[in-house]
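To fix ideas, we reproduce below a protein record of this kind.
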Amino acid sequence: SEIFRVRFSRLSIAATRFTHARAQTQRAPYSLLGVRLLRYGRVTVDYPKSRFYFEPFESGPIELAATQWNLGINVRDQALVAAVLWDELTEQLQPGDRIVSIDGQEIGQRDYCTTHLNGIRELEGKETARVTVDCQGTLKTILIHKR
C-alpha cells in the first residue's frame, strides 16, 4: 500500500500546539496515534467516558521541525527490517529486508516496544549512516540520510 509523508504547520492536540509536525500515513479506514507523542507529554485514554487527555511536559508551542530518514525501520521477528523506502532506496531495497549492521556495528535482537519507545540508538545524533542489509541472501551496504 502507498505511504505518504504529511506536514502540518500547526497541529493541536487537546490544548497543546505543535508546530512543523511531520508524519507518515496511508490510506486506511482508521488512524493510528504515534507513540512518539509520549515524548512530549502524558496521554490518558478514558475508555468508559470515551475521552482522550494530553498533558504536555512543557508549556507553550512545541517545535517539531526535525528531519526524517529516507529509510523507515521497523522490528519484525526481533530483527530490524526496512519498512518504508523513500527516494533512491525504492530501487535498492525491498520492505522486509533485514538490517545486519549500522555504521559497522552489528545489530542484535530487538524488542518491538522498546525500539519504538526509545528509537534506534545506532542512529541517534546522526544525519547519515552506512547500513548493511540482507537482501534475500545478498548483503548490500547503502548510505541513508535525513531530510
In short: The longest strand covers residues 3-13. The first helix runs from residue 112 to 118. Helices lie at 112-118. The chain has a mean pLDDT of 87.
